[in-house]
Amino acid sequence: MTQPKITQPDRMRLLVTGGAGYIGSVCAARLVEAGHDVVALDDLSTGHRDAVPAACRFIEGTVEDAGAVLAEGFDGVLHFAARSLVAESMAQPQRYWLGNVVASLRLLEAMREHGTPRLVFSSTAATYGEPASVPITEEAANQPTNPYGATKLAIDHAIGSYATAHGIAAVSLRYFNVAGAYGRYGERHTVETHLIPLVLQVALGRRNKIMVFGEDWPTPDGTCIRDYIHVVDLADAHERALVQAVPGEHRLYNLGNGTGFSVQQVIDTCRQITGHPIPAQCAPRRPGDPAVLIAASDRAHCELGWKPERADLAVIVADAWEFARRVG
Ligand code: UDP
């Protein structure tokens, strides 16, 4: 076993799991542009081969194959590969406990074995469940309401103990509602469940209307409120987390803009940006949806020096729209 040895090279050798997915591909692209040497690992179960930046070496494989890759010697891992559909996690929890937790444990073991010093992990606000108060800080109770959130929380716990015992410099980033795109890198899920890409599919003529899941929530316009964060701002936080991670410590940061927008406001913004009427229809509430989720990201602001620069919902939607039109 090799002890982790941390240096802060300008050019790090990084493994990005899930590098063919939405957030993984945007982060891989930004890391390459920042001068790092990036290897993307993805089993293409939900990712797209053509989403991997050309400058990355691509390895088709599962997270469980990471050991063979890390044996080559890496400065860090950014771990995005995961199953992330809440409804699927309720119906098929085994996919989440095996695909998210067991696979991540194998990754941690591989890092320990090969002395990989840094880890940045894609965690989620779903670990908090229904919040007792908003905005949500990192001190809020962890009470996930679905297996997706529970499996991400379990991995956070595992990372914490590996960091303490084995000296890994680790950061978990708890994403709120990630949206937007970065040029040719964007959201392209075969099974799309997220609000902004679905609304834009209506504007593209791929759907007749958007269903609004409940108009009777305790919010000003009756629709749910979420904190939408631009994927490029999110990627910038990953770069900072990677560089500033401390050996033997597991740090945890919420990533959001600290501002909430209702489903109705999102649809209205999409109408303005696309010029399309976007018909909407009220539908029953979606099980497990909290009324309001807004992040307190003060810790990331103070400790990482991170400030979102694309917090304007119109900018987020405009970038998502440009990407949606590009892929059709
Ligand atoms: N939503 C909706 N119609 C849809 C998809 C989502 O009304 O077709 C609502 C959903 O109930 C939630 C918000 O949009 O209040 C954001 O949902 P999304 O799935 O994008 O992200 P989540 O907050 O669940 O992570």
Description:
- This protein has 328 residues and is of the alpha/beta class.
- It is built from 10 helices and 13 strands.
- It has helices at 22-33, 66-70, 86-91, 93-114, 147-166, 195-203, 231-244, 263-274, 298-304, 313-327, and strands at 13-17, 37-42, 57-60, 76-79, 118-124, 169-175, 177-179, 210-213, 225-226, 228-230, 250-255, 261-262, 280-283.
- The mean pLDDT is 96.
- Bound molecules: uridine-5'-diphosphate.
- Residues 177, 193-195, 198, 210-213, 224, 226, 263, 286, 289 line the site of uridine-5'-diphosphate.
Salient structural properties:
7-stranded parallel sheet; 328 residues; 17% strand; binds uridine-5'-diphosphate; alpha/beta
Quick structural overview:
The protein has 328 residues and is an alpha/beta fold.
Write the layout of secondary structure elements.
Blueprint: E1 13-17, H1 22-33, E2 37-42, E3 57-60, H2 66-70, E4 76-79, H3 86-91, H4 93-114, E5 118-124, H5 147-166, E6 169-175, E7 177-179, H6 195-203, E8 210-213, E9 225-226, E10 228-230, H7 231-244, E11 250-255, E12 261-262, H8 263-274, E13 280-283, H9 298-304, H10 313-327
Parallel strand pairs: 1-2, 1-4, 2-3, 4-5, 5-6, 6-11, 7-10, 8-13
Antiparallel strand pairs: 9-12
Helix pairs in contact: 1-7, 4-5, 6-8, 6-10, 8-10
The structure holds uridine-5'-diphosphate.
